[in-house]
Design brief:
alpha+beta, three-stranded antiparallel β-sheet, 6 helices
Length: about 230
């Protein structure tokens, strides 16, 4: 169940020329966290994505991307409902719903057992005049204030493949600390593959600070090159 620790401000969002923008309470439009990370993605990562699309073909790549996005949306909804009501619900007969429900159940069983208090789900966060975004969950995780993100994947990930996820956690943590005067230095990723393989990462303290600095470097690069 959610403990309303903070009065989170709703943000308006829109897309302009492929970039997601949020309007903050002082009526300033700022880029989303995911837009900043996408626009500052290292060239080798962009090349790897291009090569993958070339290898599988544009039509197949679009199909895989759409399927993954739909699966992720459904899984997130199950988890959001669970955190709000302590009930995962039942998926019905739709096979895609059943798959995402089982993935959510694995995350509940193996990762959310350490969530001691939830302050909000689908929480809108912003760092004034710089960026904004929406994180999956904020609360006490294993005794520490933390940003928690739920991730689905087609196949298990190596740690070096999820560095942007770490920076994403820090971006939300920095925004929460700035606006709500907290001291979040823990980020958690709870991930399940479509074949039901579970992974988790927890970054905290010095490791958190390392990725926090990397995030601010990407913010600086965005504003230097995109505007």
């Amino acid at each position: 169940m959610i403990t309303e620790q903070f009065n989170y401000t709703k943000l308006k969002r829109r897309s302009v020329e492929g970039q997601r923008l949020y309007t903050t309470p002082n009526d300033v439009a700022v880029p989303s966290v995911t837009t900043i990370l996408d626009k500052t993605k290292p060239e080798e990562a962009k090349a790897a994505l291009r090569n993958w699309r070339k290898r599988v073909g544009n039509a197949k790549a679009a199909e895989i991307t759409k399927e993954a996005a739909g699966r992720g949306t459904r899984m997130h909804k199950w988890l959001e409902d669970y955190v709000k009501s302590d009930d995962l619900g039942t998926p019905g007969s739709n096979p895609y719903s059943q798959q995402s429900h089982k993935m959510a159940g694995i995350i509940v069983e193996k990762g959310l057992d350490k969530l001691e208090a939830c302050w909000g789900v689908e929480v809108p966060l912003y760092f004034p005049e710089i960026y904004a975004g929406t994180t999956d969950c904020v609360g006490l995780y294993n005794g520490k204030p933390a940003i928690i993100d739920f991730k689905q994947t087609n196949k298990p990930k190596k740690t070096e493949w999820v560095q942007d996820y770490f920076m994403q956690l820090c971006a939300y943590g920095e925004a929460h600390n700035e606006v709500y005067k907290t001291d979040i230095r823990t980020g958690v990723i709870l991930m399940c593959s479509k074949d039901y393989e579970y992974q988790t990462w927890v970054i905290e303290d010095d490791e958190y600070d390392k990725h926090k600095h990397k995030w601010w470097d990407r913010v600086a690069e965005y504003y230097e090159t995109q505007l």
